[in-house]
Write a structure and sequence with these properties.
Elements lengths: L1 H22 L9 E5 L3 H13 L3 E5 L2 H10 L4 E5 L7 H9 L6 E6 L3 H9 L4 E5 L3 H15 L1 H4 L3 E4 L2 E4 L4 E4 L2 E3 L3 H12 L5 E2 H9 L8 H13 L8 E4 L3 E4 L2
Parallel strand pairs: 1-2, 1-3, 3-4, 4-5
Antiparallel strand pairs: 6-7, 7-8, 8-9, 10-12, 11-12
Helix pairs in contact: 3-4, 8-9, 8-10
This protein binds calcium ion.
Calcium ion (CA) binds next to loops.
Length: about 250
């Protein structure tokens, strides 16, 4: 019965994937990173494979403590938290994460657990999906939530942070209306930080996003380029890029 259910999910998702591939629904954005915390290993594996197939980068944890540790030590674009988990439940993880991060959270809840859903939303979850779910529905929820939290990346032609404005279509940066002369790498780096404004970008994340996945460049190259960028930002603006010691960089509004 369970096997049939998952086979059905696989079959249904193939058509959706083909649509995505051919119509470019996923666009040309860098891969989004998802944390999945799910103790039922066969479900975790299945969801992980489907997400990877969709082009997401996925990390999986099988219990609450491990999930919370990952969620607070790395940057993710979306967290998928099962509610019933060993050691720390999904709602408690959500509550703790919300004290320090606004990362989008989708809870995976049991069919009859209405109180879990209410408690989860009260704890700061953005959405929930009831198990067993069709994988297409989960993928649609993820896309929706990503559109909602990063509208600049999908629908806007310009990105702004304080008095910096990026004209994405023209690859140009303006500071207080004056054009800033940046190299392609400096531009990509600034764009990444502004796309992720108020969220810390780790050096590794910056490296893979700006220099690519097969790079063998040292992580200190990131520090060098951040220094270049700071010197190019006029006057008091060179402290717009904050260093998070031992982790990476953040630009805040
Ligand atoms: Ca569970």
């Amino acid at each position: 019965m369970r096997q049939t259910f998952y086979l059905m999910l696989c079959y249904n998702s193939i058509g959706i994937k083909i649509l995505h591939r051919y119509f470019g629904i996923e666009g040309d954005m860098m891969p989004k990173k998802i944390l999945l915390v799910e103790d039922e290993k066969h479900i975790a594996r299945f969801v992980e494979l489907e997400l990877q197939h969709e082009g997401y980068e996925v990390k999986t944890a099988f219990d609450g403590r491990e999930g919370l540790a990952l969620a607070t030590s790395e940057n993710f674009d979306v967290l998928l938290l099962d509610v019933m988990l060993p050691s720390i439940n999904g709602i408690e993880i959500c509550r703790r994460i919300r004290t320090q991060s606004q990362v989008p959270i989708i809870l995976l809840t049991a069919r009859d657990a209405v109180m879990d859903r209410v408690a989860g939303l009260d704890a700061g979850a953005d959405d929930y999906i009831v198990k067993p779910f069709a994988i297409e529905e989960l993928l649609a929820r993820i896309r929706t939530i990503l559109r909602r939290v990063t509208p600049e990346q999908t629908s806007s032609e310009s990105l702004c942070l304080r008095d910096i404005e990026i004209d994405v279509a023209a690859y140009e940066v303006f500071v207080q209306g004056n054009k800033l002369d940046l190299t392609k790498t400096e531009y990509d780096l600034l764009k990444l930080l502004i796309e992720h404004k108020n969220r810390v970008c780790t050096r590794e994340h910056i490296l893979t996003s700006v220099w690519g996945y097969d790079t063998d460049i040292e992580t200190n190259v990131v520090d060098v380029y951040i220094r270049h960028l700071r010197t190019k930002l006029p006057g008091a603006m060179n402290d717009y890029i904050e260093t998070v010691r031992g982790v990476g960089y953040v630009m805040r509004e």
